[in-house]
Amino acid sequence: MKLKRFLLRYYPPGIILEYEQGGLLKTKAIDLLDLRPETDIDDVVDEITRKEPLITPSKVEQVRKLVSRLQEKLSQTDDHHFYLFKVLRAHILPLTNVAFNKSGSSFITGSYDRTCKVWDTSSGEEMHTLEGHRNVVYAIAFNNPYGDKIATGSFDKTCKLWSAETGKCYHTFRGHAAEIVCLAFNPQSTMIATGSMDTSAKLWDIQTGMEVCSLNGHSAEIISLAFNTTGDKLITGSFDHTVSVWHVNSGQRLHTLIGHKAEISSAQFNWDCSLIATGSMDKKCKIWDAHTGQCVGTLSGHDDEVLDVTFDFTGKYLLTASADSTARVYNVTTHQLISKLEGHEGEISKITFNPQGTRVLTASSDKTARVWDHETGECKQVLEGHTDEIFSCAFNYEGTTMITGSKDNTCRIWR
Amino acid sequence: MGLLALLRKLKSSPDRELRILLLGLDNAGKTTLLKQMASEDISHITPTQGFNIKSVQSSGFKLNVWDIGGQRKIRPYWRNYFENTDVLIYVIDSADRKRFEETGIELGDLLDEEKLMGVPVLVYANKQDLFNAAPASEIAEGLNLHGIRGRQWQIQACSAASGEGVKDGMEWVVKNIPKGKK
């Protein structure tokens, strides 16, 4: 094994090692999820050197520099004030979902008008219209971190794979018997997983365009799915009140997470793949041990359905958004409530952290999106202008640009 | 009504829950009708750029009514909403005689749609409060509603603005729920 070079990863903090083994170039990540600006750098470097055989004494100084750069990045105070940069009259009919590529240089919007559009973030110009679906384009994704491909899932029961650069359609994946409402690329970008109202999820091979396997077992619609960071496990959340954990290579179901008393709305892994968070119409959020499938905590408190849940990048915090028009920030380890985000005048359907984990963005049916301080729960900004409900919102990787997609057929860029 | 709520309304509805599609040309009064059904304020209604959905209770049934914009450029997308429709409601501006032909063609196309086969259709002859409104019987004849085969149909004179006739139409809808839903 020979170390070729280091790559720095800001969010979540980590150092990627590129090394050669048996003539092949490989990478591995050293996660530094607990790194703080005040952490003693010698301790961190010592621990890395002790645990990681690739870090030989001659490389220690370089590692120290990288850790110190990560600390600098972490200590940058973040008081970015967002302004409306552009209103994009994006579609003829309401938007569904929005997503950035990793760098944030472009983003995509799905719509009831059966198209997905690719936009240039800095100019607000439309780069491509991905046409071909025969019904609503509901679920969309970039194959981040690469960002050269786009997947679209439609109510026409098919999923399509596109080139992000040319807008050309590579494959149409056929096999679902009902609407496709969620999808994801695996982190290696070799497969796409799709979840459908037909109660199944399917894995598709990006190269061949063939179905790899069908994940059957849910008794109602699948409306949420996610890969873990390593890509060996997939979770599916269903209207049958359960979440299933699947082994990707074998297609076997490893666990069924049973405990919610109503439909699941969202299911997510944390970064280190140890925990799963689930939100449900039963007004609760649950935290599960991803290895054993046991429920390790139930977060009650919302007065109405929990519509979205998400971890921050490092997995320290958990966000819940509810139809009761509030959102909450929890400590993942202690399950303690850190803050309540109160102020919206309608249900909150989407919630997300900025990559730094310092700001929270919420999208609501009250036609506003809001930016919050996660520690104090203080509302930092109300983003007004949309004339109908906001369905979706997203941060770019730097945390400096946000997009919101609305039922008013427009998309707005804030920066 | 976020995206998740849309998915829940999209799925095959349980007993005593109906999916109703509200269509018609632009300015026919679909959104006003929808708001009247839901007993909401109708004073500020603008052209529908997408769709509205409301759940209305009637005779023990929950009616999920989908109101889709009627502008010409939106009409090709009506088919996005056909699946699992239990009852079609078609709204006509009875005072806009110039557009009777256009509305007749659109309705004819809808009735030919495979996904709407056998689906009962209620035609609201709306805007009866206007002095130049054509009576329901004249519209039924002009649109050759009597020639409809293979489905239940009804024409109901109404005024979405005053609410007159709206309830009668909804009662017909509940009475003509397709078999298997009752």
UniProtKB/TrEMBL annotation, chain A:
<keyword id="KW-0853">WD repeat</keyword>
<keyword id="KW-0966">Cell projection</keyword>
<feature type="repeat" description="WD">
    <location>
        <begin position="215"/>
        <end position="256"/>
    </location>
</feature>
<feature type="repeat" description="WD">
    <location>
        <begin position="88"/>
        <end position="129"/>
    </location>
</feature>
<comment type="similarity">
    <text>Belongs to the WD repeat WDR69 family.</text>
</comment>
<dbReference type="Pfam" id="PF00400">
    <property type="entry name" value="WD40"/>
</dbReference>
<dbReference type="GO" id="GO:0007507">
    <property type="term" value="P:heart development"/>
</dbReference>
<keyword id="KW-0206">Cytoskeleton</keyword>
<dbReference type="InterPro" id="IPR001680">
    <property type="entry name" value="WD40_rpt"/>
</dbReference>
<dbReference type="InterPro" id="IPR020472">
    <property type="entry name" value="WD40_PAC1"/>
</dbReference>
<protein>
    <recommendedName>
        <fullName>Dynein assembly factor with WD repeat domains 1</fullName>
    </recommendedName>
</protein>
<feature type="repeat" description="WD">
    <location>
        <begin position="257"/>
        <end position="298"/>
    </location>
</feature>
<dbReference type="GO" id="GO:0070286">
    <property type="term" value="P:axonemal dynein complex assembly"/>
</dbReference>
<dbReference type="GO" id="GO:1990234">
    <property type="term" value="C:transferase complex"/>
</dbReference>
<dbReference type="InterPro" id="IPR019775">
    <property type="entry name" value="WD40_repeat_CS"/>
</dbReference>
<feature type="repeat" description="WD">
    <location>
        <begin position="130"/>
        <end position="172"/>
    </location>
</feature>
<keyword id="KW-0969">Cilium</keyword>
<feature type="repeat" description="WD">
    <location>
        <begin position="383"/>
        <end position="415"/>
    </location>
</feature>
<feature type="repeat" description="WD">
    <location>
        <begin position="341"/>
        <end position="382"/>
    </location>
</feature>
<dbReference type="InterPro" id="IPR036322">
    <property type="entry name" value="WD40_repeat_dom_sf"/>
</dbReference>
<feature type="repeat" description="WD">
    <location>
        <begin position="173"/>
        <end position="214"/>
    </location>
</feature>
<keyword id="KW-0963">Cytoplasm</keyword>
UniProtKB/TrEMBL annotation, chain B:
<feature type="binding site">
    <location>
        <position position="70"/>
    </location>
    <ligand>
        <name>GTP</name>
    </ligand>
</feature>
<dbReference type="GO" id="GO:0015031">
    <property type="term" value="P:protein transport"/>
</dbReference>
<keyword id="KW-0813">Transport</keyword>
<keyword id="KW-0547">Nucleotide-binding</keyword>
<dbReference type="InterPro" id="IPR005225">
    <property type="entry name" value="Small_GTP-bd"/>
</dbReference>
<dbReference type="InterPro" id="IPR027417">
    <property type="entry name" value="P-loop_NTPase"/>
</dbReference>
<dbReference type="GO" id="GO:0005794">
    <property type="term" value="C:Golgi apparatus"/>
</dbReference>
<keyword id="KW-0460">Magnesium</keyword>
<comment type="similarity">
    <text>Belongs to the small GTPase superfamily. Arf family.</text>
</comment>
<dbReference type="GO" id="GO:0005525">
    <property type="term" value="F:GTP binding"/>
</dbReference>
<dbReference type="InterPro" id="IPR006689">
    <property type="entry name" value="Small_GTPase_ARF/SAR"/>
</dbReference>
<feature type="binding site">
    <location>
        <position position="31"/>
    </location>
    <ligand>
        <name>Mg(2+)</name>
    </ligand>
</feature>
<keyword id="KW-0519">Myristate</keyword>
<keyword id="KW-0653">Protein transport</keyword>
<dbReference type="Pfam" id="PF00025">
    <property type="entry name" value="Arf"/>
</dbReference>
<protein>
    <recommendedName>
        <fullName>ADP-ribosylation factor-like protein 3</fullName>
    </recommendedName>
</protein>
<dbReference type="GO" id="GO:0003924">
    <property type="term" value="F:GTPase activity"/>
</dbReference>
<keyword id="KW-0342">GTP-binding</keyword>
<keyword id="KW-0333">Golgi apparatus</keyword>
<feature type="binding site">
    <location>
        <begin position="24"/>
        <end position="31"/>
    </location>
    <ligand>
        <name>GTP</name>
    </ligand>
</feature>
<feature type="binding site">
    <location>
        <begin position="126"/>
        <end position="129"/>
    </location>
    <ligand>
        <name>GTP</name>
    </ligand>
</feature>
<keyword id="KW-0449">Lipoprotein</keyword>
